Amino acid sequence: MSTVSLRAPSISPATAPPRRRLLTRLPAAFALLPTALIVLIVYIGCMLWTVRLSFTSSTLLPKLDWVGLAQYSRLFANDRFLTSAENIVIFGFLFISGCLILGFLLAVFIDQNVRGEGLFRTLFLYPYAMSFVVTGVAWQWFLNPGLGLQKLVRDMGFPNFTFDWLVNQDMAIYTIVIAGLWHGSGLTMAILLAGLRGVDNDLWKAARVDGVPTWRVYASIILPLLRPMIVTATVLLATGVVKLYDLVVAMTLGGPGIATEVPAKFVMDHLFERNNIALGTAAATIMLVAVISILAPWVYMKYVRREGRHA
Amino acid sequence: MSDVIPQGRRPRHLTPARIGVYAFLITAALFFLLPLWIMVVTSLKPMDEIRLGNIIAWPQALTFEAWTKAWSSACTGLECNGISVGFWNSVRILIPSVICSIIVGAVNGYALSFWRVKGANILFGVLLLGAFIPYQVFLYPLVRIFSMTGVYNSLLCIVIVHVIFGLPTMTLLFRNYYASLPIELFKAARIDGGGFWTIFFRVMLPMSTPMLVVATILQVTGIWNDFIFGLTFAGRENLPMTVQLNNIVHSTQGERAYNVDMAATMLAALVPLVVYFVSGRWFVRGIAAGAVKG
């Protein structure tokens, strides 16, 4: 009684009768059960619950009434939320492009057969090991106008030097970007350096024989080759952007005023401090929609399509 | 001077281009080192000296007072027992969370890459998508579930949360690793009559040392540096070090003791820094393994 398997690379011995095969797979199914439950309850259930709550008028306690899009129209009339949205766009753009540019430059310069390469690599990446809270506290101290960088430069003989971005409503968000760059560009460097090391040496020889200037090789040949690494780094950095919360809390607490509020903080504040669950969940839903619309195409390309080819 | 462009892969001469390369690298290194340097020197100065400014100078009256104060008597809100409380809380959160999330990830990765369970691919797909979804989407319902079941604000609660949100990365890590092993290995073990758990413990786990190291590095730094989960789920008794640090920095009455703040910051950064410097290239491999090979 041999079974003809329709799926080509069947892993269990093809001669096993179907019932036995099912039995041997049972422990595997059981092992995956907790994860399946977590996915079902937390990843899907909690997500739907949050979306549902955003259509209610819940304040301190959750209610299950229906107010349609009322919370969303309140949200988009809310200064704090609009500032948050604007800030995350500014931060996201500057942080991702800054990390990519700085990381690429660092990787290229490290890749020039320099002495002490290991030391440089270690120094560029160590901030990534530290928490955002540590990063935020450190930069807050360094950039505070009273005793930090501004005072330092003034004491060095430039009494008119001003660097008060940390307490300046219009500029505070850029101090968060600086701290973010310090934290994250080493990661980009590490990923891109791994990519550079994978470039075939013959390519360099060929380019040299043809007399192509080095910068041209980097711009026209190396950069396109690094595309997968750049995509990876961008995705990693982008998930960091969405999660931006601790850094802001540690560095500015959203201030001065509401100048450095970000969506994640908006949600947290409304859920756990301002007792406005409906508005908080509405903001969380907006975050969700934004992330899905940005990342869904990428995940589809990277995993789902390839999965199909292999099966 | 646009023609001073670094030339790739040349033999070592001290040409202007080489000097340019080193100048750039050293400048960058200074930028990355500066905050750490400032933290260290500030933590070693008495407050009188800090008030004078000159934030980057080496302390004239070197003192470790701020460090002892930060460790054992700095105030986090109303209590003044220093950041040591947070340190031990973080340790108590860290150990079970790391162990559990790695075990779950390894079993998942193994089941997903060798056993064709129905719907497993969908499960994996949803899990991967879940890795990108902002935590804020899950937090409130999770809090409700935990308070309904009575585990909210406990050590157990925060450990469960870390396992839940460590699932995507850990599963991906181990799935990719096991998928790279030759399938014949598994087939041979199956023919020899090995069942699900036998093959896992006798064949796969002993071969997983590199991934176990990578996963440990990833989870230790990740969980130690967590802020949002500790704040939301750990409860007042178990607040991790990051939350305590934030409280110390933002709760000081009157003049802020910058030296104590910086000593506390250094203490909070110590564990991940040690992990980073000891693990070296493994650290990079950890970050890359979750993403690049995916």
Would you count the extended β strands of chain A for me?
Answer: 0
| Count of discrete structural domains of chain B | 2
Q: Which quaternary structure do these chains form?
A: heterodimer
The domain count of chain A comes to: 1
Summarize the main sheet of chain B.
none
In the CATH scheme, the class of chain A would be Mainly Alpha
- Please mark out the parts of chain B with pLDDT under 50 across 5 or more consecutive residues, or reply none: none
Number of strands of chain B: 0
Rg of chain B over CA atoms, rounded to whole Å, is 24 Å
Radius of gyration of chain A: 26 Å
CATH class of the largest domain in chain B: Mainly Alpha
Output the structural class of chain A: mainly alpha
The end-to-end span of chain B amounts to 42 Å
Q: If you consult CATH, what is the topology of the largest domain in chain B? A: MetI-like fold
Which chain pair shows the most residues in contact? A-B, 116 and 107 residues
SSE order of chain A = HHHHHHHHHHHHH
Proportion in helices of chain B: over 70%
Strand fraction of chain B? under 5%
Number of helices of chain A: 13
List low-pLDDT spans of chain A.
1-15
Can you describe what's shown?
The complex is a heterodimer of chains A (311) and B (294). Chain A is mainly α. Chain A has one domain: MetI-like fold. Chain A is 71% helix and 0% strand. The longest helix of chain A is centred in the first third of the chain and has 36 residues, at 18-53. Chain A starts with 17 loop residues before the first helix and ends with a helix. Chain B has 294 residues and is mainly α. Chain B contains 14 helices and no strands. Chain B starts with 15 loop residues before the first helix and ends with a helix. The mean pLDDT of chain B is 87. At the A-B interface, helix 1, helix 3, helix 4, helix 5 and helix 6 of A face helix 1, helix 4, helix 5, helix 6 and helix 7 of B.
